[in-house]
Amino acid sequence: MLRTAAILGAVTLAGVSACSEDGRKAVPPVSPGTTTPTPTPTPTPPATHPFTGGRTGLQNPVLAVKIDNTRPAHPQEGLRSADIIYVEQVEGGETRLMAIFSSKLPRRVGPVRSARISDLHILSAYGRPAFAFSGVQSKMKPYIRRSKLYDISQDNGGSSYFRVGGGRSIPYNLFSSPRALLAQAPKASGPRNIGFRFGPAPEGGKPRTSFTARWPSETMGFRWSAAQKRWLSSHSGRSNTAAEGGVLGGQTIVVQYAKTTRSRFHDFLGSYTPLIHTTGTGRATVLRDGKAYDARWSRPNEESGTTFTTAAGAPMTFAPGQVWVVLVNDGPPRIP
């Protein structure tokens, strides 16, 4: 009898500790010297997208894609859907693009081409994005492996990459599906603050309707369209038409002057790969709303974003929409 009573008492106590009088589950007592775990708060999405100032895709992952920018690669496809487009100097004084997608995705994008060392320095501000490209110099592969990004290059992307017809020849016919690419990087970082600020135009600025950026072997022009409220681009004197139709261009064009030197890498012809120094401080010209603003850029380290200020020291705000960051040498165009 004593043993039966003890068992019944234990069951009764277990029931008391499990439920309160109103039937809800009771909170077990905390032993002295212990603390109740604090639940991890759910991150609050930003009110606007930090890449565009818009209100869509606030929690979408970030995908970066390298795109050819030589004449045989035109017209490019998918760039109209990009949030940010970087223009970078490569070997031979030509340029290549790196498109950042998050708020929306195109059906396909291309021509996809190989990565460069400057890409890794730029992308470190984005957390751990997915990075799509068609290849890389063998000496640079260890740098890719050590980078905080998801390598979804052609070597790893499998059927995400495909060749297209339409008169395009190798290597200008390699395209990819952004959705298929992101499916292979399910933990890619979402959008984060990279230093951009969007809003009404700041005080100052001089009326301007065109600007030409120069590299040793090509130029890119930007012409203000009041009707479309964006800057329309040209490549070496020809209108930069998108494969989907219309002319490529953005609401804000940031011409960022950055020191360009030789890297330790070079292509198969022996031409050195430029290294664009995107940390530190420097000058910039920001084009928005038919005006040009003298500005300064600052990026203290590679984990930080790049902030822009006006000549008066006020935040340089961008017009909501697509942003082009055009990286040119801080000085005369030259091949390192």
TrEMBL record:
Residue ranges of every copy of the DUF3048 domain listed in the record: 58-188, 215-325
Region (Disordered): 21-55
Record's compositionally biased regions (Pro residues): 38-48
InterPro entries registered for this protein in UniProt: DUF3048_C, DUF3048_N, YerB-like_sf
Protein source organism: Actinomadura craniellae
Pfam families in the cross-refs: DUF3048, DUF3048_C
Protein name (database record): DUF3048 domain-containing protein
